[in-house]
Known about the structure:
With 221 residues, the chain is of the alpha+beta class. The chain is 55% helix and 7% strand. The chain has a four-stranded mixed sheet, covered by helices on one side. The longest helix has 30 residues, at 114-143. It is globular.
Amino acid sequence: MSGKPKLHYFNGRGRMESIRWLLAAAGVEFEECFLETKDDLTKLQKDGSLLFQQVPMVEIDGMKMVQSRAISNYIATKYNLYGKDMKERALIDMYVEAVIDLNELLMTHAFQPADKKEQHFATIVDKATNRYFPVYEKVLKDHGQDFLVGNRLSRADVQLLETLLMAEECKPDILAKFPLLQSFKARISNIPTIKKFLQPGSQRKPPLQEKDVPKLMKIFH
C-alpha cells in the first residue's frame, strides 16, 4: 500500500488513540476505517487482515500491522520519535511503558460496574499522583530540558501528554502539585502538529462515555 496510513478500529479512543497521537505529532495524515458492527470485524478476521484476529490494525508501507505496541514502535522509528541511540531508546521505552500502565487504568474506567467505579477512580488518582507523576516531575527537573529524553521531541513526550490530558478529564486539578508537568503540558501542546491535533474537528477522539459501552460490546463480543 502507498499513500496515507489507514487505521482500522472503532470510532473512539481505545488502543488506537496513542497511534493517532503519534501520527499527528509526526505531521502524518491518515485515513480511518471505522468498525460499526460485529460483521465489520468478522470480515477483517476472515480475509486474513488480522494476524491475531484483533484490532487495532494499521495499513502502512505495504504492511497490515497489528499489536498496538508494535505499531507505535514502527511509527516512532519511522518518524524519528525514538531517540538518537540505544540508551535514549531504553529511557523512552521505560517512560512509555509506565504511561501505558496509567493509560490502561484511565481507559478502563468507563467499563467499571457502578459499584466499583468509586474505588477505581480512587486507584487512578492514587497511582497517578503517588507513583507516576512524581517520577516524570523528577525526570524533567533532573534532565533540565524541554523534553523527557535528549533535547528533541520523542514518543515519550507525546504519550505522556496524551495521558496527562486524559487524567485531567478524570480529575481537573490532578496536576496541581506538579508545576513542571504543568509547564511540560503547555509546552508540548503548543508544538504546531500537536496544537493542530488538539483543535476541534481533528481526528482526536472524545472520552468514552458509558452510553458507548454497549455498542462496543456488540462489536467485540
